[in-house]
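User: Hey, quick favor. My workstation is busy. Could you predict this chain's structure for me?
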Amino acid sequence: MKTKDVVDHIINWLNSYVEESKLDGFVVGVSGGVDSALTSALCANTGKPTLCLEMPIHQESNQVSRANRHTSWLAKNFSNVRAKVVPLNDLYDSFCKLDTAGNDNINTLLSLANTRSRLRMATLYYFASQERFLVAGTGNKVEDFGVGFYTKYGDGGVDVSPIADLMKSEVRELAAHLGVHESIVNAAPTDGLWDDNRTDEDQLSATYDELEWAMQQQENGKITADFTGRDKTVFSTYEKHHTMNKHKMIPIPICVIPQQLK
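Assistant: No problem, here it is.
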């Protein structure tokens, strides 16, 4: 990959888009992971006003410290960057109290995990509206178009997706090029939506490198029967997530009324 050229291309694309939209800048949710670190660094490099929001909801301390380190680094090096911490613990806890049936079954736990993401989305758009900014998404290609590993109308609710054509390995490469701290580049990916230390790879049952491989194999027309051993397991896992989450990747279905019925 021509790293510098790709970085320049994304920065120019972001600049063109925000100027055409007649808005003033970008807001990015920063989690302490490499995807949000790269996205916020790219937005910062546009020279346009960029607001980095940390929105902790009972986060692990290492996620908070990495996010703080990154936003402090950006604010120090880019005069157009502001960082703001908006704790959402109380809001989330109040939401949890709406359900008195208990929250220890898997469906409720998943619903609550997704709720964290949707509360953050609402917060991003609150500040985006205040500032006349665009919400910059932080999803990469494997997450957004491979396994659909994001929350519909949560972290999937954005205005622009600057890194959605980059594999995870490419995200790491660009982040390192832009000077993102090594601890963030090499951190185990996590969506930060659970009350434990589970990583993305724990939830997906495969590493991002494996999922990248599977995505490329599918694009090349391969099927599960073409593989054996671990390759077969990974490819099958990828296909399962891709099929299950396909509804996130396609336009919302519209019931078209035949003209003769109108």
